[in-house]
Request: fold
Amino acid sequence: MTLKNFYTQRIQRGLVRRWNNLKVARVARRVARLSPPVAGQPIIFFKASTGIDDLSWNSGFHLLASWALRLKGIPVAYFACHAGMSKCVLGTNRDDPHKAMPCSSCLYQSRTLYAGLPTFQPSNLSTTSVRWFDFQRDPQLITRVSQLTLAELMTFEHESIPLGALCLPGLRWILRIHHLVDDEPTRYLLREYILSAWNVARTFSDFLDRIHPRAVVLFNGQFFPEATARFIAQRRGIRVITHEVGLQPASAFFTEGEATAYPIHIPDEFELTDEQNARLDAYLARRFQGDFTMAGIKFWADMKGLDEAFLKKAAGFKQIVPIFTNVIFDTSQPHANTVFEDMFDWLDMALDVIHAHPETLFVIRAHPDETRVRKASRETVEGWVTSRDVQKEANVVFIGPKETLSSYELIQRSKFVMVYNSTIGLEASIMGAAVLCAGRARFTQYPTVFFPQTVDEVRKKMKEFLEAEKIAVPPEFKRNARRFLYYQLFRTSLPFGDFLEPSVRTTQTRLKTFGLDELLESDVVNVILDGLLHGGDFLLKE
Reply:
Protein backbone atom coordinates (compact mmCIF):
# COMPACT_ATOMS: atom_id res chain seq x y z
CA MET A 1 0.00 0.00 0.00
CA THR A 2 1.37 3.42 -0.97
CA LEU A 3 1.55 6.28 1.52
CA LYS A 4 -1.16 8.12 -0.42
CA ASN A 5 -3.48 5.11 -0.31
CA PHE A 6 -2.77 4.66 3.40
CA TYR A 7 -3.85 8.20 4.22
CA THR A 8 -6.81 8.02 1.83
CA GLN A 9 -8.06 4.88 3.56
CA ARG A 10 -7.42 6.40 6.98
CA ILE A 11 -9.47 9.50 6.09
CA GLN A 12 -12.22 7.33 4.62
CA ARG A 13 -12.26 5.15 7.71
CA GLY A 14 -12.51 8.21 9.93
CA LEU A 15 -15.43 9.61 7.94
CA VAL A 16 -17.25 6.25 7.93
CA ARG A 17 -16.65 5.84 11.67
CA ARG A 18 -18.08 9.29 12.38
CA TRP A 19 -21.11 8.66 10.18
CA ASN A 20 -21.67 5.24 11.79
CA ASN A 21 -21.37 6.65 15.31
CA LEU A 22 -23.95 9.31 14.51
CA LYS A 23 -26.26 6.63 13.13
CA VAL A 24 -25.75 4.35 16.13
CA ALA A 25 -26.41 7.20 18.57
CA ARG A 26 -29.56 8.19 16.69
CA VAL A 27 -30.97 4.65 16.78
CA ALA A 28 -29.87 4.20 20.43
CA ARG A 29 -31.82 7.31 21.46
CA ARG A 30 -34.83 6.05 19.53
CA VAL A 31 -34.63 2.69 21.33
CA ALA A 32 -34.45 4.54 24.67
CA ARG A 33 -37.48 6.64 23.74
CA LEU A 34 -39.63 3.77 22.43
CA SER A 35 -38.81 1.11 25.02
CA PRO A 36 -41.81 0.33 27.25
CA PRO A 37 -41.64 0.44 31.06
CA VAL A 38 -39.50 -2.38 32.43
CA ALA A 39 -40.04 -4.75 35.33
CA GLY A 40 -38.22 -7.67 36.91
CA GLN A 41 -34.60 -8.64 37.24
CA PRO A 42 -32.31 -7.04 34.66
CA ILE A 43 -29.84 -8.70 32.31
CA ILE A 44 -26.32 -7.28 32.51
CA PHE A 45 -24.32 -6.65 29.32
CA PHE A 46 -20.54 -6.15 29.54
CA LYS A 47 -17.98 -5.90 26.70
CA ALA A 48 -14.84 -4.00 27.63
CA SER A 49 -12.55 -6.00 25.33
CA THR A 50 -14.02 -5.58 21.87
CA GLY A 51 -13.59 -2.29 20.03
CA ILE A 52 -12.02 0.99 21.08
CA ASP A 53 -13.14 3.48 18.46
CA ASP A 54 -14.74 1.48 15.64
CA LEU A 55 -17.82 -0.72 16.00
CA SER A 56 -16.51 -4.27 16.24
CA TRP A 57 -18.68 -7.20 15.18
CA ASN A 58 -19.11 -8.32 18.79
CA SER A 59 -20.02 -4.77 19.85
CA GLY A 60 -22.69 -4.90 17.16
CA PHE A 61 -24.07 -8.21 18.46
CA HIS A 62 -23.99 -6.84 22.03
CA LEU A 63 -25.87 -3.72 21.00
CA LEU A 64 -28.58 -5.34 18.86
CA ALA A 65 -29.37 -8.07 21.39
CA SER A 66 -29.67 -5.55 24.22
CA TRP A 67 -31.83 -3.22 22.11
CA ALA A 68 -34.23 -6.08 21.38
CA LEU A 69 -34.55 -6.90 25.09
CA ARG A 70 -35.27 -3.29 25.98
CA LEU A 71 -37.86 -2.95 23.22
CA LYS A 72 -39.56 -6.03 24.69
CA GLY A 73 -39.73 -4.37 28.13
CA ILE A 74 -36.90 -6.45 29.64
CA PRO A 75 -34.64 -4.39 31.92
CA VAL A 76 -31.01 -4.17 30.80
CA ALA A 77 -28.09 -2.91 32.85
CA TYR A 78 -24.87 -2.04 31.04
CA PHE A 79 -21.60 -2.40 32.95
CA ALA A 80 -19.22 -0.07 31.15
CA CYS A 81 -15.62 0.98 31.57
CA HIS A 82 -14.99 4.64 32.41
CA ALA A 83 -11.18 4.49 32.39
CA GLY A 84 -11.77 1.69 34.88
CA MET A 85 -8.51 -0.17 34.26
CA SER A 86 -4.94 1.09 34.52
CA LYS A 87 -4.19 -1.18 31.55
CA CYS A 88 -6.67 -3.00 29.33
CA VAL A 89 -5.89 -5.63 26.71
CA LEU A 90 -6.93 -3.74 23.58
CA GLY A 91 -5.36 -0.50 24.75
CA THR A 92 -1.95 -2.00 25.53
CA ASN A 93 0.96 -1.04 23.32
CA ARG A 94 3.17 -4.13 23.29
CA ASP A 95 6.18 -2.08 22.21
CA ASP A 96 5.65 0.57 24.89
CA PRO A 97 3.82 -0.99 27.88
CA HIS A 98 3.85 2.31 29.80
CA LYS A 99 2.05 4.21 27.04
CA ALA A 100 -1.25 5.74 28.24
CA MET A 101 -4.50 4.00 27.42
CA PRO A 102 -6.70 5.39 24.59
CA CYS A 103 -9.53 6.00 27.06
CA SER A 104 -10.91 9.14 25.39
CA SER A 105 -11.71 7.45 22.06
CA CYS A 106 -13.00 4.35 23.85
CA LEU A 107 -15.29 6.42 26.10
CA TYR A 108 -16.58 8.31 23.07
CA GLN A 109 -17.46 5.01 21.44
CA SER A 110 -19.17 3.70 24.59
CA ARG A 111 -21.22 6.87 25.05
CA THR A 112 -22.31 6.48 21.44
CA LEU A 113 -23.51 2.92 22.03
CA TYR A 114 -25.39 3.86 25.20
CA ALA A 115 -26.77 7.20 24.01
CA GLY A 116 -30.00 8.29 25.66
CA LEU A 117 -29.47 6.25 28.83
CA PRO A 118 -28.99 7.61 32.36
CA THR A 119 -26.13 6.68 34.67
CA PHE A 120 -27.05 3.86 37.06
CA GLN A 121 -28.70 4.91 40.32
CA PRO A 122 -29.28 2.27 43.03
CA SER A 123 -32.49 4.04 43.99
CA ASN A 124 -34.03 3.51 40.55
CA LEU A 125 -33.57 -0.09 39.43
CA SER A 126 -36.61 -0.04 37.13
CA THR A 127 -34.78 2.01 34.47
CA THR A 128 -32.33 0.70 31.91
CA SER A 129 -29.09 2.49 32.72
CA VAL A 130 -25.30 2.36 32.51
CA ARG A 131 -23.07 1.58 35.47
CA TRP A 132 -19.83 3.36 34.59
CA PHE A 133 -16.88 2.10 36.64
CA ASP A 134 -13.63 3.98 37.13
CA PHE A 135 -10.28 2.80 38.45
CA GLN A 136 -9.32 2.75 42.12
CA ARG A 137 -5.93 1.35 43.07
CA ASP A 138 -5.76 -1.01 46.05
CA PRO A 139 -2.61 -0.09 48.03
CA GLN A 140 -2.57 -3.41 49.86
CA LEU A 141 -2.71 -5.35 46.60
CA ILE A 142 -0.01 -3.17 45.05
CA THR A 143 2.30 -4.12 47.90
CA ARG A 144 1.50 -7.82 47.51
CA VAL A 145 2.29 -8.00 43.80
CA SER A 146 5.13 -5.47 43.56
CA GLN A 147 8.02 -7.91 44.10
CA LEU A 148 6.57 -11.10 42.63
CA THR A 149 8.27 -13.02 39.84
CA LEU A 150 6.45 -13.70 36.61
CA ALA A 151 5.72 -17.29 37.67
CA GLU A 152 4.28 -16.05 40.96
CA LEU A 153 2.15 -13.45 39.20
CA MET A 154 0.81 -16.07 36.77
CA THR A 155 -0.58 -18.12 39.68
CA PHE A 156 -1.48 -15.19 41.95
CA GLU A 157 -4.78 -15.36 43.88
CA HIS A 158 -6.49 -12.69 45.97
CA GLU A 159 -9.53 -13.35 48.13
CA SER A 160 -9.93 -16.72 46.39
CA ILE A 161 -10.01 -15.14 42.94
CA PRO A 162 -7.33 -16.53 40.54
CA LEU A 163 -6.42 -13.11 39.19
CA GLY A 164 -3.15 -14.27 37.61
CA ALA A 165 -4.77 -17.09 35.67
CA LEU A 166 -7.65 -14.85 34.59
CA CYS A 167 -5.17 -12.32 33.15
CA LEU A 168 -2.89 -14.75 31.30
CA PRO A 169 -4.91 -15.31 28.08
CA GLY A 170 -5.18 -11.58 27.46
CA LEU A 171 -1.49 -11.00 28.20
CA ARG A 172 -0.41 -13.74 25.81
CA TRP A 173 -2.82 -12.44 23.18
CA ILE A 174 -1.64 -8.84 23.23
CA LEU A 175 2.06 -9.78 23.41
CA ARG A 176 1.49 -12.42 20.69
CA ILE A 177 3.69 -14.92 22.51
CA HIS A 178 2.97 -18.03 24.55
CA HIS A 179 6.23 -18.36 26.46
CA LEU A 180 6.31 -15.13 28.44
CA VAL A 181 9.68 -13.61 29.32
CA ASP A 182 10.31 -12.86 32.99
CA ASP A 183 11.43 -9.26 32.39
CA GLU A 184 10.19 -6.02 33.92
CA PRO A 185 7.95 -4.93 30.98
CA THR A 186 6.09 -8.27 31.10
CA ARG A 187 5.84 -8.26 34.90
CA TYR A 188 4.67 -4.66 34.79
CA LEU A 189 1.84 -5.46 32.39
CA LEU A 190 0.74 -8.50 34.35
CA ARG A 191 0.80 -6.54 37.62
CA GLU A 192 -1.34 -3.80 36.09
CA TYR A 193 -3.72 -6.38 34.59
CA ILE A 194 -4.06 -8.02 38.02
CA LEU A 195 -4.76 -4.66 39.70
CA SER A 196 -7.29 -3.84 36.99
CA ALA A 197 -8.94 -7.27 37.21
CA TRP A 198 -9.30 -6.81 40.97
CA ASN A 199 -10.94 -3.42 40.34
CA VAL A 200 -13.39 -5.12 37.97
CA ALA A 201 -14.04 -7.82 40.58
CA ARG A 202 -14.80 -5.27 43.32
CA THR A 203 -17.00 -2.98 41.26
CA PHE A 204 -18.83 -5.81 39.50
CA SER A 205 -19.47 -7.59 42.80
CA ASP A 206 -20.98 -4.38 44.19
CA PHE A 207 -23.12 -4.04 41.04
CA LEU A 208 -24.41 -7.60 41.45
CA ASP A 209 -25.24 -6.92 45.10
CA ARG A 210 -27.39 -3.97 44.09
CA ILE A 211 -29.36 -5.30 41.13
CA HIS A 212 -29.50 -9.13 41.50
CA PRO A 213 -29.55 -9.86 37.73
CA ARG A 214 -31.22 -12.82 36.10
CA ALA A 215 -28.24 -13.30 33.76
CA VAL A 216 -24.99 -11.75 32.54
CA VAL A 217 -24.05 -11.47 28.84
CA LEU A 218 -20.33 -11.09 28.08
CA PHE A 219 -18.05 -10.86 25.07
CA ASN A 220 -15.78 -13.90 24.70
CA GLY A 221 -15.03 -14.49 28.40
CA GLN A 222 -11.26 -14.95 27.85
CA PHE A 223 -9.82 -11.45 28.32
CA PHE A 224 -9.47 -10.48 31.97
CA PRO A 225 -12.29 -7.89 32.31
CA GLU A 226 -14.98 -10.27 31.08
CA ALA A 227 -13.24 -13.36 32.48
CA THR A 228 -13.25 -11.78 35.94
CA ALA A 229 -16.89 -10.76 35.68
CA ARG A 230 -17.74 -14.29 34.51
CA PHE A 231 -15.88 -15.83 37.46
CA ILE A 232 -17.62 -13.54 39.98
CA ALA A 233 -21.08 -14.17 38.52
CA GLN A 234 -20.68 -17.95 38.26
CA ARG A 235 -19.36 -18.16 41.80
CA ARG A 236 -22.70 -16.65 42.87
CA GLY A 237 -24.68 -19.06 40.74
CA ILE A 238 -25.73 -16.43 38.21
CA ARG A 239 -26.25 -17.61 34.64
CA VAL A 240 -23.56 -16.33 32.23
CA ILE A 241 -23.80 -16.22 28.44
CA THR A 242 -20.77 -15.46 26.27
CA HIS A 243 -20.67 -14.57 22.60
CA GLU A 244 -18.15 -14.59 19.76
CA VAL A 245 -18.15 -14.29 15.99
CA GLY A 246 -19.73 -17.27 14.26
CA LEU A 247 -18.36 -19.34 11.40
CA GLN A 248 -20.50 -17.60 8.76
CA PRO A 249 -19.96 -13.99 7.64
CA ALA A 250 -21.70 -11.39 9.86
CA SER A 251 -22.78 -14.07 12.33
CA ALA A 252 -22.59 -14.52 16.10
CA PHE A 253 -22.32 -17.51 18.42
CA PHE A 254 -24.01 -17.32 21.84
CA THR A 255 -23.58 -19.98 24.53
CA GLU A 256 -23.77 -20.64 28.25
CA GLY A 257 -20.38 -22.34 27.93
CA GLU A 258 -17.04 -20.89 26.82
CA ALA A 259 -17.68 -19.25 23.46
CA THR A 260 -14.12 -19.82 22.25
CA ALA A 261 -14.41 -23.56 23.00
CA TYR A 262 -17.65 -23.69 20.97
CA PRO A 263 -19.68 -26.19 23.01
CA ILE A 264 -22.43 -27.67 20.84
CA HIS A 265 -25.00 -30.28 21.77
CA ILE A 266 -25.89 -32.43 18.76
CA PRO A 267 -28.64 -35.01 19.40
CA ASP A 268 -27.40 -38.56 18.92
CA GLU A 269 -30.19 -39.27 16.47
CA PHE A 270 -29.44 -36.28 14.23
CA GLU A 271 -28.53 -37.29 10.68
CA LEU A 272 -28.08 -34.96 7.72
CA THR A 273 -30.84 -35.12 5.12
CA ASP A 274 -30.08 -35.06 1.39
CA GLU A 275 -30.88 -31.35 1.33
CA GLN A 276 -28.64 -30.65 4.32
CA ASN A 277 -25.81 -32.69 2.81
CA ALA A 278 -26.11 -30.71 -0.42
CA ARG A 279 -26.05 -27.43 1.52
CA LEU A 280 -22.91 -28.49 3.39
CA ASP A 281 -21.21 -29.76 0.24
CA ALA A 282 -21.85 -26.44 -1.51
CA TYR A 283 -20.14 -24.62 1.36
CA LEU A 284 -17.19 -27.04 1.36
CA ALA A 285 -16.74 -26.69 -2.39
CA ARG A 286 -16.30 -22.94 -1.95
CA ARG A 287 -14.03 -23.34 1.07
CA PHE A 288 -11.79 -25.84 -0.66
CA GLN A 289 -11.21 -23.13 -3.28
CA GLY A 290 -10.29 -20.60 -0.57
CA ASP A 291 -13.62 -18.75 -0.76
CA PHE A 292 -14.36 -18.06 2.91
CA THR A 293 -13.90 -15.43 5.61
CA MET A 294 -13.58 -15.53 9.41
CA ALA A 295 -14.30 -12.44 11.51
CA GLY A 296 -14.05 -10.35 8.36
CA ILE A 297 -10.69 -11.80 7.26
CA LYS A 298 -10.30 -13.56 3.89
CA PHE A 299 -7.18 -15.72 4.25
CA TRP A 300 -6.96 -17.36 0.85
CA ALA A 301 -7.55 -14.68 -1.77
CA ASP A 302 -5.36 -16.56 -4.26
CA MET A 303 -5.07 -20.23 -3.33
CA LYS A 304 -2.77 -22.24 -5.59
CA GLY A 305 -2.12 -25.92 -6.08
CA LEU A 306 1.02 -27.93 -5.41
CA ASP A 307 3.78 -26.81 -7.79
CA GLU A 308 6.12 -28.96 -9.84
CA ALA A 309 9.06 -28.40 -7.50
CA PHE A 310 7.10 -29.74 -4.55
CA LEU A 311 5.74 -32.72 -6.48
CA LYS A 312 9.22 -33.58 -7.72
CA LYS A 313 10.61 -33.51 -4.17
CA ALA A 314 7.66 -35.52 -2.81
CA ALA A 315 8.23 -38.22 -5.45
CA GLY A 316 11.45 -39.14 -3.67
CA PHE A 317 9.61 -40.17 -0.47
CA LYS A 318 7.41 -43.08 0.50
CA GLN A 319 4.64 -40.92 1.99
CA ILE A 320 3.63 -37.36 2.90
CA VAL A 321 2.48 -36.17 6.33
CA PRO A 322 1.36 -32.55 6.68
CA ILE A 323 1.63 -30.90 10.11
CA PHE A 324 -0.83 -28.01 10.49
CA THR A 325 -0.08 -25.47 13.21
CA ASN A 326 -2.23 -22.71 14.68
CA VAL A 327 -1.89 -19.13 15.94
CA ILE A 328 -0.67 -18.24 19.42
CA PHE A 329 -3.98 -17.10 20.87
CA ASP A 330 -5.93 -20.15 19.72
CA THR A 331 -3.25 -22.45 21.15
CA SER A 332 -2.76 -20.46 24.38
CA GLN A 333 -6.33 -20.53 25.64
CA PRO A 334 -6.67 -22.52 28.88
CA HIS A 335 -8.90 -25.17 27.37
CA ALA A 336 -6.56 -25.97 24.45
CA ASN A 337 -3.49 -27.44 26.16
CA THR A 338 -4.84 -30.58 27.77
CA VAL A 339 -2.16 -32.98 26.50
CA PHE A 340 0.94 -30.90 25.76
CA GLU A 341 2.23 -27.87 27.61
CA ASP A 342 1.79 -25.90 24.40
CA MET A 343 1.93 -26.22 20.62
CA PHE A 344 5.72 -25.84 20.47
CA ASP A 345 6.13 -28.72 22.93
CA TRP A 346 4.11 -30.80 20.46
CA LEU A 347 6.29 -29.69 17.56
CA ASP A 348 9.41 -30.69 19.51
CA MET A 349 7.93 -34.16 20.04
CA ALA A 350 7.07 -34.40 16.35
CA LEU A 351 10.58 -33.37 15.35
CA ASP A 352 12.05 -36.23 17.40
CA VAL A 353 9.91 -38.68 15.43
CA ILE A 354 10.70 -36.94 12.13
CA HIS A 355 14.41 -37.63 12.67
CA ALA A 356 13.67 -41.36 12.85
CA HIS A 357 11.63 -41.48 9.63
CA PRO A 358 13.68 -40.25 6.66
CA GLU A 359 11.38 -42.13 4.27
CA THR A 360 8.52 -39.71 5.01
CA LEU A 361 8.18 -36.14 3.75
CA PHE A 362 6.79 -33.94 6.52
CA VAL A 363 5.22 -30.64 5.49
CA ILE A 364 5.02 -28.16 8.36
CA ARG A 365 2.48 -25.47 7.59
CA ALA A 366 2.26 -22.15 9.47
CA HIS A 367 -1.21 -20.66 9.94
CA PRO A 368 -1.95 -17.68 7.63
CA ASP A 369 -3.18 -15.64 10.60
CA GLU A 370 0.35 -15.57 12.06
CA THR A 371 1.18 -12.48 9.99
CA ARG A 372 -2.17 -10.69 10.06
CA VAL A 373 -1.73 -6.90 10.00
CA ARG A 374 -1.87 -5.43 13.55
CA LYS A 375 -2.17 -8.95 15.03
CA ALA A 376 1.00 -10.67 13.84
CA SER A 377 2.40 -13.32 16.18
CA ARG A 378 5.79 -12.61 17.79
CA GLU A 379 6.37 -16.24 18.75
CA THR A 380 5.92 -18.02 15.47
CA VAL A 381 6.23 -21.43 13.88
CA GLU A 382 8.74 -19.91 11.48
CA GLY A 383 10.78 -18.83 14.51
CA TRP A 384 10.57 -22.35 15.91
CA VAL A 385 11.68 -23.79 12.56
CA THR A 386 14.71 -21.49 12.55
CA SER A 387 15.63 -22.14 16.19
CA ARG A 388 15.57 -25.91 15.63
CA ASP A 389 17.39 -25.81 12.26
CA VAL A 390 14.42 -27.64 10.74
CA GLN A 391 15.30 -26.28 7.29
CA LYS A 392 18.35 -28.57 7.37
CA GLU A 393 16.19 -31.68 7.57
CA ALA A 394 16.07 -33.34 4.15
CA ASN A 395 12.60 -34.76 4.80
CA VAL A 396 10.92 -31.53 5.91
CA VAL A 397 9.30 -28.76 3.87
CA PHE A 398 8.20 -25.60 5.67
CA ILE A 399 5.26 -23.63 4.26
CA GLY A 400 5.23 -20.06 5.58
CA PRO A 401 2.08 -18.13 6.59
CA LYS A 402 2.08 -15.98 3.44
CA GLU A 403 2.25 -18.91 1.04
CA THR A 404 -1.12 -19.70 -0.54
CA LEU A 405 -0.51 -23.35 -1.34
CA SER A 406 -3.70 -25.43 -1.08
CA SER A 407 -3.88 -27.35 2.18
CA TYR A 408 -6.65 -29.44 0.68
CA GLU A 409 -4.50 -30.78 -2.16
CA LEU A 410 -1.86 -31.56 0.44
CA ILE A 411 -4.39 -33.53 2.50
CA GLN A 412 -5.47 -35.53 -0.54
CA ARG A 413 -1.87 -36.74 -1.05
CA SER A 414 -1.13 -37.41 2.63
CA LYS A 415 -0.69 -40.68 4.53
CA PHE A 416 -2.33 -38.97 7.52
CA VAL A 417 -2.69 -35.43 8.87
CA MET A 418 -1.32 -33.95 12.09
CA VAL A 419 -2.98 -30.92 13.73
CA TYR A 420 -2.83 -29.16 17.06
CA ASN A 421 -6.31 -27.63 17.28
CA SER A 422 -6.87 -26.01 13.90
CA THR A 423 -10.16 -26.28 11.99
CA ILE A 424 -8.28 -27.92 9.10
CA GLY A 425 -8.41 -31.11 11.20
CA LEU A 426 -12.20 -31.13 11.00
CA GLU A 427 -12.11 -30.55 7.25
CA ALA A 428 -9.52 -33.30 6.77
CA SER A 429 -11.83 -35.73 8.59
CA ILE A 430 -14.66 -34.74 6.27
CA MET A 431 -12.33 -35.48 3.35
CA GLY A 432 -11.82 -38.98 4.79
CA ALA A 433 -8.25 -38.48 6.00
CA ALA A 434 -6.83 -39.94 9.19
CA VAL A 435 -6.25 -37.01 11.55
CA LEU A 436 -3.97 -37.15 14.59
CA CYS A 437 -4.90 -34.27 16.91
CA ALA A 438 -2.74 -33.03 19.80
CA GLY A 439 -4.70 -30.15 21.35
CA ARG A 440 -8.30 -29.79 22.44
CA ALA A 441 -10.26 -28.24 19.57
CA ARG A 442 -13.87 -27.28 19.03
CA PHE A 443 -14.50 -30.51 17.15
CA THR A 444 -12.82 -32.88 19.65
CA GLN A 445 -15.93 -32.78 21.84
CA TYR A 446 -17.21 -35.45 19.40
CA PRO A 447 -15.33 -38.44 17.92
CA THR A 448 -14.03 -36.77 14.75
CA VAL A 449 -10.26 -37.40 14.93
CA PHE A 450 -7.69 -39.56 16.69
CA PHE A 451 -7.04 -37.66 19.93
CA PRO A 452 -4.74 -39.53 22.36
CA GLN A 453 -4.82 -38.14 25.89
CA THR A 454 -1.12 -38.26 26.87
CA VAL A 455 2.11 -37.16 25.23
CA ASP A 456 3.39 -40.74 25.10
CA GLU A 457 0.17 -41.91 23.45
CA VAL A 458 0.42 -39.18 20.79
CA ARG A 459 4.03 -40.17 20.07
CA LYS A 460 3.08 -43.85 19.93
CA LYS A 461 0.15 -43.19 17.59
CA MET A 462 2.32 -41.06 15.29
CA LYS A 463 4.89 -43.86 14.99
CA GLU A 464 2.14 -46.43 14.48
CA PHE A 465 0.61 -44.43 11.63
CA LEU A 466 3.97 -43.86 9.97
CA GLU A 467 4.76 -47.59 9.99
CA ALA A 468 1.26 -48.87 9.14
CA GLU A 469 0.56 -50.21 5.67
CA LYS A 470 -2.92 -48.69 5.88
CA ILE A 471 -4.71 -46.62 8.53
CA ALA A 472 -8.27 -47.64 9.35
CA VAL A 473 -10.36 -44.54 10.08
CA PRO A 474 -13.56 -45.19 12.07
CA PRO A 475 -16.53 -44.26 9.84
CA GLU A 476 -18.09 -42.25 12.66
CA PHE A 477 -15.25 -39.71 12.40
CA LYS A 478 -16.44 -38.45 9.01
CA ARG A 479 -20.11 -38.64 10.05
CA ASN A 480 -19.51 -36.67 13.25
CA ALA A 481 -17.29 -34.16 11.46
CA ARG A 482 -20.01 -33.41 8.93
CA ARG A 483 -22.67 -33.18 11.61
CA PHE A 484 -20.51 -30.86 13.72
CA LEU A 485 -19.63 -28.54 10.84
CA TYR A 486 -23.27 -28.42 9.74
CA TYR A 487 -24.30 -27.33 13.23
CA GLN A 488 -21.50 -24.74 13.35
CA LEU A 489 -22.52 -23.26 10.01
CA PHE A 490 -26.28 -23.46 9.91
CA ARG A 491 -27.54 -23.85 13.47
CA THR A 492 -25.15 -22.01 15.82
CA SER A 493 -24.01 -19.17 13.50
CA LEU A 494 -26.69 -16.54 14.09
CA PRO A 495 -26.83 -14.23 11.04
CA PHE A 496 -26.88 -10.48 11.67
CA GLY A 497 -26.44 -9.55 8.01
CA ASP A 498 -29.80 -7.76 7.90
CA PHE A 499 -28.54 -5.25 10.46
CA LEU A 500 -24.73 -5.14 10.16
CA GLU A 501 -22.34 -4.96 7.22
CA PRO A 502 -18.54 -4.81 6.88
CA SER A 503 -17.00 -1.40 7.34
CA VAL A 504 -13.94 0.04 5.55
CA ARG A 505 -11.83 -2.35 7.61
CA THR A 506 -13.69 -5.65 7.24
CA THR A 507 -12.84 -6.74 10.79
CA GLN A 508 -15.15 -3.91 11.89
CA THR A 509 -18.81 -3.36 11.09
CA ARG A 510 -21.31 -0.60 10.56
CA LEU A 511 -25.04 -0.35 11.14
CA LYS A 512 -27.40 -0.89 8.23
CA THR A 513 -30.65 1.02 7.91
CA PHE A 514 -33.56 -0.98 9.33
CA GLY A 515 -36.79 -0.55 11.28
CA LEU A 516 -36.91 -1.54 14.93
CA ASP A 517 -39.91 -3.75 14.14
CA GLU A 518 -37.68 -5.63 11.68
CA LEU A 519 -35.18 -6.20 14.47
CA LEU A 520 -37.83 -7.59 16.83
CA GLU A 521 -39.38 -9.82 14.17
CA SER A 522 -36.10 -11.33 12.95
CA ASP A 523 -35.42 -15.02 13.51
CA VAL A 524 -31.94 -14.38 14.90
CA VAL A 525 -33.16 -11.95 17.56
CA ASN A 526 -35.96 -14.28 18.61
CA VAL A 527 -33.47 -17.15 18.98
CA ILE A 528 -31.31 -14.94 21.23
CA LEU A 529 -34.27 -13.68 23.26
CA ASP A 530 -35.49 -17.23 23.77
CA GLY A 531 -32.02 -18.24 24.93
CA LEU A 532 -31.64 -15.31 27.30
CA LEU A 533 -35.15 -15.30 28.75
CA HIS A 534 -36.27 -18.92 28.59
CA GLY A 535 -33.11 -21.00 28.61
CA GLY A 536 -33.22 -21.78 24.89
CA ASP A 537 -30.28 -23.34 23.06
CA PHE A 538 -29.32 -20.35 20.85
CA LEU A 539 -29.77 -22.52 17.75
CA LEU A 540 -31.47 -21.48 14.53
CA LYS A 541 -34.48 -23.56 13.65
CA GLU A 542 -34.32 -25.61 10.47
